[in-house]
Automatic annotation (TrEMBL):
Residues 92-102 have a biased composition (Basic and acidic residues). Belongs to the catalase family. HPII subfamily. It comes from the Bacteria. This is Catalase. Residues 22-38 have a biased composition (Low complexity). There is a cross-link at residues 395-418 (3'-histidyl-3-tyrosine (His-Tyr)). Residues 84-472 form the Catalase core domain. GO terms for molecular function: catalase activity; heme binding; metal ion binding.
Amino acid sequence: MESRKPAQVVKDALEKAVEKVTGAASPTAPGAPASAPPDLVEPTEPREPLPPKPDQGTPAHVTPTGADTGASPQLNSQQGAHLTTSQGLRLPDTDHSLKAGERGPTLLQDHHLREKIMHFDHERIPERVVHARGAGAHGVFIGHGTAAAVCKAGFLQEGVRTPVFTRFSTVVGSRGSADTVRDTRGFATKFYTAEGTFDLVGNNIPVFFIQDGIKFPDVIHAAKPHPDREIPQAQSAHDTFWDFVSLHTEATHHVMWQMSDRAIPRSYRTMEGFGVHTFRLVNAEGGTSLAKFHWKPKAGVHSLLWEEAQLINGVDPDFHRRDLYDSIESGAYPQWELGIQVFPDTPDQTFEGIDLLDSTKIVPEELAPVTPVGTLVLNRNPTNFFAESEQVAFHVGHLVPGIDVTDDPLLQARLFSYLDTQLTRLGGPNFSQIPINRPHAPVNDMLRDGFHQHAVHGGVAPYKPNTLDGGCPFTAGADMSAFVEFPQVVEQGRKVREAPASYSDHYTQARLFWRSLTALEREHVARAFTFELGKCYEQAIKERQLKVLANVDPVLCEQVATGLGLPAPEAENPARDVAPSPALSQIGGTWPVDGRLVGVVVDPADHEGARTVVAEVDAAGMVPLLIAPHGGPLGGGLVAQRTFLTARSVEFDAILLATAPPPAPDALPARDAKAGAPSGPAVDPRVSLLLQEAFRHAKAIGAWGGGVAALEAAGVPVDAVGVVTGDSPSAVLGSVVDLLGEHRVWDRFPSALPI
């Protein structure tokens, strides 16, 4: 038999793979994520790695000095059918960390967890692997004293003012990605307390994709861009993400939140935050409670519509960070109440049948109310983005007396990971000496030298015990604000890679979230699933995710299946029915209008009414932005910050019209594509587009005088809900302010979905 060269073997394998996929000599359409189509169910029969796709190449296999080895380039790729460590040791499990009994804690000896997390922490140089795209601000936290009965932490005591730095971020995208992508957002706050630094490192979604931190590299690898093409950027609308979550059904609850409006917040200042995990609180008497942390925005929870988010990603990819910085600069300081849900510290660590150590579960606020314990105010922007927002380093292990960790296996792995990730990103172990990370409490450690050591340590004895430095530093007791771990009884059991039986319910809380939303919010969830899955290439992945949705709710599954042109499957493991939690809905309340952006379309030749309205908008704590044919001074003390060319409706929370402006000199389709929009002959077409988009996005619109004619020219019904007209600019503004309290005019486009 004639022997074939390695390159020919690879070529033959590629041709067979292509024929299997398409039945032809070349693919029928570009975009297949893998060289062979996936199965509907997870494969269990071991097989060698798939060959590359026909369009892919790899570096030639040569020696370090350039000599051709004659070997197949594929020898540089993965080898063998079984999962191993980097040393070739085969692994029986990569979903569970090694714990002392199924409820933990996680053991330091878990070499696989350590290697997997260590390598993941250093995948990006020097960018963060996750949360790379972020923005931060300085502020102050004022304690209410309401936590004293359950927590002795000094910064929570009444009237105590603690400096803070808060960083918001997306998870999946790189530093250069856009702000308003559909993604989970980080919400991390560094408290510079007198007892040491406390970091509350959370998200704007209260649950996570996974229950055990050993799986964190898996979920992020699935969510990140495909490794062959590095696309799509900062999106979950692709095959690898849905391949993972459709197989890994403990992610279902988080996916429901991510497909909701929560994943596209209007701004950071209208975004909730959550500590995700359950922590242990200790009071002055040594009594303990379990607790979850919540950040509640004083401006209310508010999100973008999906079309708005897509427009913003092109119009202003810095939308969220710009909004944060501008709101602080204008004095409309973002504010949140920090609250806690408190639970008895029982041996089983459950509450109302909910396992408190499972980070894919919430406790509805109707079962355990959120008690406010302090107020966060962000009031200073960074002086230098890199030195502050980029170099800030958070760690869930930065704790203070009164706040301790639990055996949540996701939290336990994070305790490994956060210090480790700084070694490459910030150049060594002394990242705590970077100004933004320096504690505001005295530091006397025995850590010495290393890269970027800024301290000039005295003495000769950085060890204990010693006499050469007079015995210093000395240990402290609990009565001196020392951090003493709670002496929790650890389960006496086997060392296992297992999870408790309570972790196996993956659908009930996903259904709880769905049932708690209004019909309009459900409409948005169904549309998001349809859009995201519609971007997948592989049909089997879409069908598999529909099987998951069938277990959550048949209406949701049917709506998504219809949008994808697929049959809706029957539920195989349907979630049990649950009572809705109204606290999970964003719609129905009224909120302060502080910091809302109001666009005012003005006529440079007639600005009397506009000047009155601008003053009243400013007096109400909102930010007026004047839109005119040209920027700069308009006369009468008014200054236009936006022009018909630069303005877009997505920036504003409401639109006011003092005029029906005629087409400006630059209203030429060749100069501004927006000028090609249809309009009445006497109105600038870009103003008409501004109004049409605002109306379609359920925003409040007000007009007086000639502004009413602009509405008519744009085809906006003057008698529609949320459209206010009148002779008095002040009266029109008053009605618009009332509408802004509900964020949007939700009744303008009712949902067709059943309640």
